[in-house]
Amino acid sequence: MKTNEKIKKTIPVFFAADKNYLPYLSVAITSLKAHSNPEFLYKIHVLYTGELGERANEISALAVENVSISFDDISNVIDRIKAFIHCRDYYTDAIYYRLFIPELFTQYEKAVYLDCDTVLLDDIANLYQIDLKDNLIGAVADQAVAGVGAFRDYTRNALGIPPEEYFNSGVIVMNLNKFREIRFYERFCRVLGSYHFIVAPDQDCLNLICKGKVYYYGGEWNRMPIAGKDKKKPALIHYNLTMKPWHYDDVLYQEYFWEYAKQTAFYDAILQDLKEYTPEKKEWDKVGGERLIALALAEADSPNNYFRTVANDTRKNENEVDVYGFIEGFSAAFGDFEKDRRIREGRKI
Known about the structure:
Layout: H1 2-7, E1 9-16, H2 22-34, E2 40-48, H3 55-60, E3 67-73, H4 75-81, H5 101-104, E4 111-114, E5 118-120, H6 124-128, E6 137-141, H7 143-147, H8 149-159, E7 167-174, H9 176-181, H10 184-194, H11 201-210, E8 214-216, E9 236-238, H12 254-261, H13 267-275, H14 279-301, H15 314-320, H16 324-344
Parallel strand pairs: 1-2, 1-4, 2-3, 6-8
Antiparallel strand pairs: 4-7, 5-9, 6-7
C-alpha cells in the first residue's frame, strides 16, 4: 500500500457521520467505489464524535486496494467549542465538522467534502481535479434556493448574497491552502460570533466568508430532487432536505440510491427504515419544511438581520466581536488532535 500511495495521485474525500447515518454513508461510499479509477488512491475520512458502535466495522470493510477508509474522532475539537456553536431543529453539530478540515488535516492541499445523503454516478476524481484557480472553494449554486422564493429572499435580503451565488455546502471542494492562508478559522469564529444564524448556520457562514471566491461547478455535480429532473444525467445526486429515499418511496432519482443500497450490508436495515417511517414522521417533515420557510421569510424581512446590522457595521464586525476564547479553545483541541494523529501514524511527537 505504501508503494501505491507514492505512485498514485491521492484524492482526499471527507464525510461527517454519527452512528445513525452509517447505513446511508455505506451507500455513498459504495457508489464512490463503483466509479473510482484504479489509477487514483481515494482516501476517505469519516469525521465523527461519540460512539459509532459495531456498524462502523461494516464501513471499514468497504475499503479496497485503491479506496482507504479511516475514522477520525474530532470530539476534542467539538467539546472545546460546543458552547459557541448552534444548530436548528434536527441538525446536529456534525454540520460544522467540514469547517475544521483545513486546520486538522494539514497534509492535504485540497479536499472534497460530501454529505452522507449523496450518491455518485461519476468519478469524484473528475470533480476534484477541476482547477479552482485562486478561489477558496468549488461548489454548486444551491438548487433549493433557486426553486423556493422564500430562500431567494433570504439569501438576498438577510445575507446580502445574490440567490444565484449562494452555494450548497453538502458537496464542496476546498482549497485548503487558501483556507489556511486567509486564516479561515478566525474568520469563521468572527462571523459565527457576530450573529445567531437560524436558517442554515454552517452553510450561511461558509457562504459569507467565501463570497466572491467561489468556483461554480455545473449543477450535475449536486443534483437535488427538489430541483426536478434535468436533461443532463447527474454526476452526483444529493438527497437533501426531507427528500430521502429511505423515508419516502416517490423521491426523484431514488432508483440510483437503491441500486447501491442493495450492494451494502445495510440493505435490509434501510428497507426497514422506509417501512417504519410513519405518517406522523412525514407530518413532522411537512411542518418542519413550513417552519423553515417561515424562518427564512422572517429573517429576510427583519430590520435586525445580518445584512442590515452586522454586515453594514464594519467596525463592529472587525473589532467588537470577542472570538479569542473560541480560537484558543480550538487551538488547544487542534494540538490534541494533531498529537493523536501522529501517534496513529507512528510519527514522532
